[in-house]
TrEMBL record:
InterPro entries found in the cross-reference section: Carb_Esterase_6, SASA, SGNH_hydro_sf
Keyword Hydrolase: yes
Lineage top rank: taxon: Bacteria
SUPFAM superfamilies: SGNH hydrolase (SSF52266)
Domain Sialate O-acetylesterase stretches: 105-305
Keyword Hydrolase: yes
Name of the molecule in the record: Sialate O-acetylesterase
UniProt keyword list: Hydrolase
Lineage of producing organism: Bacteria, Pseudomonadati, Bacteroidota, Cytophagia, Cytophagales
One Pfam family here: SASA
Amino acid sequence: MAQIKIRYPESRFVFQRNNNNRADVPVVLQFDKPVQKIEIQAIARSMNSPQGTSTDWIPVQKPSQSNTCYTKITLAGGWYDLIVRAFDGLNFVGIDTLKRVGVGEVFIVAGQSNATGDNELRNQNIFGPSATDDRVETINYFNGETTTYGATKYPYPIISQIDSTFRLAPFGNSAWCWGVLGDSLAKKLNVPILFFNAGWSGSGISSWVSSAEDSSATPSEFITYPRGLPYGNLRSSLRFYTAQFGLRAILWHQGETDNLYQTDRDTYGKKLKRLIEKSREHSNAPNLAWVVARATRFRGLSIQYSRVWQPVIDAQNDVLGINGQGQANYLSNTFIGPATDSLIGPSIRTIDSVHFQGKGIVKLAQAWNTYLDSHFFEASTPILSTSLPEINSACASITSLKFTLTNPTLYSVSEWSNDPFAKQVFSNSTSINLSQNQFARVRVKDAQDRELFSPLLYTPNNFAGLYPLESTQSGYWHDTGIWSCGRIPTALDEVTILKNHEVVVGTGLSAQFKKLNLLGNLYLFGDTHLFTNKVIPKSVKE
């Protein structure tokens, strides 16, 4: 184990920037030797087009009674390596480097199959291209087709560059058009891009709204959805992924199913407006941006030719204000997305004339890129990441530490896990004890229903100098039972003898410490001298 370690963030984490192109990136450090000074630096990664803004060494305030340090570093949009180093006086203690940490743009995709990539297309090896830019990221995780909203429990995020075959968490079927779009956005904006995908193939607006309004609903269209779905994946993403990383906007591509059902203009418009309003309520973000594609093209058994459905397009335009902001279903902070129905042809869509394929997937990405323009990024209001739960550590015994949530009243749920993905819970307490070389992290839920993780914290195999020692009673210096950590002080330790405690150094023995705070008394055997030297070797005759 390194002497100092960056425990958070993880490699490839991307944090949403604000509209001034800045983000406060949370950083959590642990060290297993005494340190007096810690510094952090961010280095913009070398790329074909210069990006990011490197920093000088920045001092980090070290806690006085913990081996865990929480800080933030403010960075401009870019792709960075983080470096931390520590000193004890003039002595260099250690250094650690974390590669690929981003400040950029975060999106959640929602809608139906042309938002997610269809599962049947996946079975036909139609995936959509991989991202080619190193800065285009996702989590390769699939939430499961039978998981209900109440049972959703996303694992600790592991982020990767988008690969063609990846499931884009929590419910995407492949890279679809998002890897290509990510490449275009990363090049245009010169920042990293992070995608999540909460869509569901075949889903209609009614299922989205009914499950948004009632998390126990089981809507039925082509299928009967699990409880709280399909909206539940979007709601969970807003609670979980947005809390961790922030969010720029939801990208909505849906309408094909409502072509089949011939949904009328006012019904679709009211329901889309209601859906957006519920997402803002659940994310506690009244200005949460939505980018809405105008999409309806469908062909089914009862439809001889591929067709569009103008009432749904009109309804989408009503919500966006294209038909005038006086429309009853108009909603502010919504942004115009691509009109995709005109993208047709055998090289663009599959034989069903509905789903994109090949160059059509690339054209779909290009269409999205056109509408995610400078106006959108200037006018939309992003959600920034939520502060991490902070944890203090203290000696519990000579071989264990006690880890405690600093502000437990902020959280309604605390779940401790020693599983790296935090799926298995071993304690719901606000504090736990860990023996040497053991690891754990905590998942919490706050008053806004947001779920957050702590980093994976550990107990080093030697605590000397990490935690101040205090006398617990009067007695002999070399008696482990009189010290707060249950061990004899070393030359690395800060030691306090509390008021009304008398501690005696036995005949022929030495008392060692780095700093001694005398509120009580320290005696050599048979002597009344109060000692303040760093090391006290003495042999006193009785």
